[in-house]
Amino acid sequence: MSMRRRRKALALVGMMVLVLSSAAPSAEEAVESRHGMAMYDDLKYGPGFEHFDYVDPSAPVGGTATFSAVGSFDTLNPFIIRGTPAAGVGLLYETLTVGSLDEPFSRYGLLAESIRMPEDRSWVAFKLRPEARFHDGRPVTVEDVIWSFNTLKEEGQPLYRYYYANVVSAEKTGEREVTFRFEGGMNRELPLIISELPVLPKHYYEQVEFDKTTLKPPVGSGPYRIERVDPGRSIAYQRNPDYWGWHLPVNAGRYNFDRIVYDYYRDTNVALEAFKAGGYDFRLENTAKLWATAYTGEPFDKGRIVKEELPDESDTRMQGFVFNTRREIFEDPKVRQALAYAFDFEWTNENLFYGAYDRIDSYFSGSSELASSGLPSEAELELLEPLRGQIPDEVFTQTYQPPSTEQPGGLRANLRKALELLGEAGWVIENGRLVNQETGRPMAFEILLVSPEFERIVLPFAKNLERLGIRATVRVVDTAQYQNRIDNFDFDMTSTVWGQSPSPGNEQRDYWGSKAAETPGSRNLAGIESPAIDVLVDAVIQAETRDDLETAVKALDRVLLWGHYVIPHWQIQSYRIAYWNKFGRPEIVPPYGLDLYAWWVDEDKVAALRSGQSMEGGARAATVD
Prior knowledge:
- By secondary structure, the chain is α+β, with helices and mostly antiparallel strands.
- It folds into three domains: 33-205, D-Maltodextrin-Binding Protein, domain 2 (3-Layer(aba) Sandwich), CATH 3.40.190.10; 227-313 and 573-611, D-Maltodextrin-Binding Protein, domain 2, CATH 3.40.190; 316-571, Dipeptide-binding Protein, domain 3 (Roll), CATH 3.10.105.10.
- The chain is 29% helix and 20% strand.
- It contains 20 helices and 26 strands.
């Protein structure tokens, strides 16, 4: 072959290689786009779905819905640790995807029109909708997504650092595509977690300091804009007719109120009286006594106020008195175990709660799939055995049950057991006081509260502690002071709730992780620093199947329970709601949340209320017994 022909042949081969390489997508590019994603690939709604089942897509739009909040607010920035953000401010912002309330953990495109993710979930890519806009008309861009991720992780609330701990990069991989890459092995939840990222306008924060509190209405991309702010007292949101996302199936039948108002009240008692006087429209009641006794009178009798209970399958949680184990007196698990015997749940439930509640006995109570029971299964033992010696021995031999006064001897027997455990921990009674044998220091601590109504529950507990020679003072502080002290772990004991999703994951690091124990603003209020618990949390996060997840959660639950970090409280599997009879709502109540944004104002009912006439559909819920 001549040199000339050889050059031509080589040129032809080069052109073919170039054409083939440009035509053939890379392995990453070849990953199929999808409209949503689920924890275990079991999406309920297909690509062409028109709306969620629990909404009415023909719901009318208009009217005002007024809600209440207790305390005060001093900022419109909910993303930083400083300040107390206004209620409802999340209405201003959109995320890459949105979840459905009739699936354990699924996400569908919102700002993102499509999602790409490989089988090993080592990365996820989101392609943004070209129509997505901020309130000032600027498009939502990949640069906004990347800036939001980096800023929230570096300067936002601590939970973002834990949620995004294994997200190593966010990069632009197309004109409208952003790709997040992960490390640390299989973590099925991470693509869903990062899809919950609130996307903020980079151009706005180039002019405004992100890490400062502010009462200046910010620029968002959501369905509502701020109409007015009365600092600390009230905030009103106006439905945005120019919102870019009204056509999306995930928004069909939702955000039907033309205005949403949050009025603030000094405490819950004042708020309740304001509700009954017509000051606001809707109330979710958490106090059994009030639900049993206070929701009475002419508006209820005439059906002007509706009272009902709706099923709640999402109430998976731990609520309890939490020990701050950073305090020396609470370092010993035996001391913590002993003090649990002084809380008389049975008396409290009968005398204060009208028998409304069941006792919590799991950090995932309310979930038969996640809460531990009986002794560990073989699958659980595979996780627990390597940790033997680092975790309580009882994990392997006993089923945890919180102390009960239903046993023979009741409270008296429980207090004797408490003194026995305290004696084993080096505490003795001297002159009527419980003192440490080595230091002579008496046991005394403060129980920090934010709700005055909770005093009636805590004071009998404190009285029982007094019978053990312990001085427990109860202190109620305002919302701002309470939040500041909680954020800085400046308390001995408090009452708290750790809410759990049907699919626990990365948030467990913020709840129980060793690093979180040292990070102000984290949810690790107990101050847990346990390498063994860190291992189990990682097992939860890295679970590859639903069975693996349930096994890891149950194992974690057992270790937390036998660590005696809390004195468990109580729960009820229903929403207790009351509202002025001005609303319509869908027939279906989703199992994993109460979607008030799927309700609407019924103008005929509003007219009937204004006329003062009796109405159908009044107090429909019997008193809980």
